[in-house]
Amino acid sequence: MINYFYLIKIQKSKFKKNKLKELNVKKMKKIRISIIVLTLLTLSMLSYISTEVLGQTQDNTQITTNQADQKFPAIYGDRIVWMDRRNGNWDIYMYDLSTGTETQITTNPSSHEYPKIHGDRIVWEDSRNGNWDIYMYDLSTDTETQITTDPERQWFPAIYGDRIVWEDGRNGNSDIYMYDLSMITETQITTNLSNQWSPAIYGDRIVWGDQRNGDYDIYMYDLSTGTETQITTDTLSQESPAIYGDRIVWEDGRNDNWDIYMYDLSTDTETQITTDPAIQAGPAIYGDRIVWHDNRNGNTDIYMYDLSTDTETQITTHLYSQWSPAIYGDRIVWWDYRNGNWDIYMHKLPELVQFIYGTNSGPVDLDPHNAWDISSFDVIEQVVETLYAYDLLDPELAPIPRLASDFGTWSIDGLSYTVPLKMGVTFHDGTPFDATAVKWNFDRLAYFMNLENPTHISTLYLWHDGTPIINEVEIVDEYTVKFVLNKPFAPFESLLCFSGSGIMSPTSTSPENYIDTATGDLVGTGPFVYDNYEVGVEVTMHAYENCWAGAPYIDELTFSIIPDINVRNLALLDGTIDFLKTPDDSFFQTFRDDPDITLVDAGQDATIRFLGMNNRLINVSFREAISYAINYTYMIDELLGGEAVRLKSPIPLGITNANWSFNVPILNLTRARQVMQSMGFGVGFDVDKDAEWTTQATLSPFRSINYTYNWGNKFREDMLLLLQDNLGKIGIKVIDAGMTSREYFDRLLDIPPYSRNHLELFWVGWVPDYNDPSNIINSMFSKNSVSNFAQVDDDLVQQWMEEALITINPAERKVLYDKIQQRLIEVVFPYAWGYVRRNYDAHSSKFTGFQSNPMDKVWFYTVSSQSPDVNGYIQNLPDEFFVNNAEQRKNALSEKFNDVFEHINNGEYEEAIDKLKHDIRPKCDGSLGGNPRNDWITDPETQQELCAMIDALIAFLETLI
Question: Is the pLDDT of residue 255 over 50?
Fold first, then answer.
């Protein structure tokens, strides 16, 4: 089901925000178009949803219509039960929402009152034996059972699973008793001589109102531990408790009126939910939602409070009274006097869109100013926004303003960059976003960079000599900041896209202490509000309703942590999760065959993999020979199953200034052997035959070179065999130097007592931190970089790298990076360029709007539930809205819309426009100035809705031509 409320709410703002520019790749364009079509179609369907689903009134559904009284409803799933007086006594009735059928549960002429339901079981208090007993009816077996037989009164039952609780008068006062259906045992829960009233049960916990202290307090008994706990201690009365999970709610008289209060057992905190001076009473709770009846408007209305959003909502507005609500999921029921007798009514809340992302690990660091791992980025970037971000639907990942209102302005000398900021933006905690907030964040980052043990990300904000890139941040005015740099830094705009440049609320955390990942809070301006991190289990967030760009489509976002890759892939198959980044190759065909899963092939990613060669220990001629001796086609087709692309530059496609036109080495044994001969090896050997070369490698190799890799990495293990075979053909023996991951990385990262000089050949990968070639080139090839794994030392490359960093002009930078790439590829041979993976995502087909991208970032703001079924909308229109044969007209109109969508999917926008303008619209525009004789649809309101949708879709498609 789609969340119509939110889609309509954000339609205007999001349509403007996402106005599309033409892209070079048709697939990327189609993904974005589907989001706009979704929004436009939703607009036309809202009227149908509100009139057909909600029934007689705008927001409430009348469940009972009998003119006798129906009271005290309870709900579980699709079933509503209540006490009903239509037969002259009180009987228990049930309505099944899924079948639309009403059933009389009790037929005995005595009274049956105060029903409750859980699963297939209904319980009530029953007077048929001359006193009040507890009875139960099991819908699965159609059997009625008497639960209590004591001659004293038992009343006000509640049920959860196999356990039924009630008030019991057998001891001369009122006690709480329980019956366990599975054990067939009755247990007295309370023994205090005062009165205990109104029990409720959830799981192992029973709560009630208790008079033992002279007033009424809330008490709880935990069946699993056998312990009783006093929940409230205020000297005034607390009554009518309800419980769900760790949360207990009740009506409370401490403020000289009745308010709703809540106690959270997991945090040991009490919260006042209502503060209005009128009476709020009769609370019920389900999940994050609390409901009650409220007389603040002079009559009694039903209200709701949502703990996840801290919002209170008035559910009923009718002038007559509504009482005693119950809630299950998104449905609220109550008894209502608007028709002159008491009826049962129901309100269905807008359905929450819940979305679960299956990830391999949780965040290592929740603090943007310290996080440097992908799992942390994925969480942070949903919550905390940067001044600029990447257009993830642009294959070139062009920066776009996010919290900045426009692109910044460079000073003539390149020493300052001035950024205008968006106005009217607020952080999740209500703090205004402005220049002061931006400065606070960058000052905080600078503080962490200056610590004895600086932040993990400090190297990204420093020159190689330790000088900070940013000298200071100046506040120009309330919504303008100036970044003053120590010297020009050309990729500065891209650096502002990195999550470490994220803007948090200055009032949310300490300026001198990192956020505690396990217990801290993360507060930004982004589309999702951070809720909680259960370490090793999940991260939870919810939609930020006041997001400056409009509320997201997803209401509740969960990152489910599933370390095992097979289990993670299976979780998508069984519907446990909704999205999977980089699914395992072995599941591709299964995903393709499953109609409920969409496997997205989004081109190639930006993570480069390559064979490192120690430039200090292996000279350039050996490096060239090795580069031309490797069978790259076999590597990709056999070792990687064809799910990769040969890397043709140190800069991957998708990163600015990538140029894949240079002569990257391919398998060419003749050239490799000629290079070996130029060094005096194999002189006289036939360069076109293997025998002499492979014999040499076996008996007396020209050179023995170790290949270091980490055990357990199958591809790197497989590369050992490939390298032994391939380099053996040029007389080189490859020695197996496999080791543990820790031992391998100690050598790679130069951690004493090991060093990079223990490595000769090694396999490694590089993930860009932000979209600029310097983040790869300077990191991997500068003699000043700690990430120069191959120990490259080339004066020309060094000179050009340093020039490119301070060259602000984009065209001049491109020339420099072309020169750098060509020299590295064709002259220096620092690495044997390996591959980039094909970039796949997999997700539930009921969601759309994913933005797969080369940097493998996740951004769930644009994701929504399945687009509205326009055909379903048409089919559900009343037959009388159509001329003549309604069924034939409906089917034909549905087919015409299908043709339009097919044209859009194929990028045939002019054909789609023509179909809309000259075929579909004339079938429903008679009341709008068209020719009524051509109309298939005759209802004026429906004509207006469809034509508005068609016109909006036409206008949008015209922007794409």
Answer: yes
Which amino acid is present at 846? K
Enclosing H/E stretch for 82? strand 79-84
Phi, psi of 805 (to 5 degrees): -65, -30
Rounded-to-5 percentages of helix, strand, coil across the chain: 30, 30, 45
Residue 23 corresponds to which amino acid? L
Contacts of 468-473 spanning 24+ positions with Cβ under 8 A: 469/495, 470/442, 470/446, 473/438, 473/439, 473/442, 473/443
Distance between CA atoms of residues 330 and 346, nearest Å:
10
pLDDT band, very low/low/confident/very high, at 48 (cuts 50, 70, 90): very low
Report how far residue 72's alpha carbon sits from residue 343's, in angstroms, rounded to the nearest whole number.
Answer: 10
19 vs 23: CA distance, rounded Å: 12
Query: What single string gives the DSSP state of each residue in 392-415?
Result: TTSTT--EEESSBSS--EE-TTSS
Q: How far apart are CA 403 and CA 405, in angstroms?
A: 6
Name residues whose C-beta falls within 8 Å of residue 470's C-beta, 6 or more positions apart in sequence: 442, 446, 461, 483, 484, 485, 486
Partners of 164 in the β-ladder: 159, 179
Lookup: tokens for 37:
């079509």
Let me know if 586 is exposed, middle or buried by CB neighbors in 10 A (0-12, 13-18, 19+). exposed
**Integer Cα distance of 69 and 874 in angstroms:** 39
Whole-number pLDDT of residue 659: 97
Using CA of residue 518, residue 523, residue 526, residue 532, what is the dihedral sign? positive
Please report the sign of the dihedral spanned by the C-alpha atoms of residue 243, residue 248, residue 251, residue 253.
Answer: positive
pLDDT per residue as tens digits for the range 479-504:
999 999 999 999 999 999 999 999 99
Give dist(CA 304, CA 313) in Å, integer: 5
Q: Which residues are CB-neighbours of 888 under 8 A, at least 6 positions away?
A: none
CA–CA dist 819, 256 (Å, integer): 80
- CA distances in angstroms from 22 to 32, 658, 842, listed in the order given: 11, 21, 26
Contact between 470 and 387 (Cβ < 8 Å): no
**Digit-coded pLDDT (tens) for 716-735:** 999 999 999 999 999 999 99
State the burial class of residue 894 (Cβ atoms within 10 Å of its Cβ: 0-12, 13-18, 19+): middle
pTM for the full model?
Answer: 0.68
* Separation CA 678–CA 668 (nearest Å): 16
Q: What is the DSSP track for 353-372? A: -EEEEEESS--S---TTT--
11, 193, 413, 805, 822 from 809: Cα distances, Å: 38, 86, 12, 11, 20
Q: How many residues does this entry show for the chain?
A: 961
State how far the alpha carbon of 395 is from the alpha carbons of 40, 68, 818, in Å. 26, 66, 19
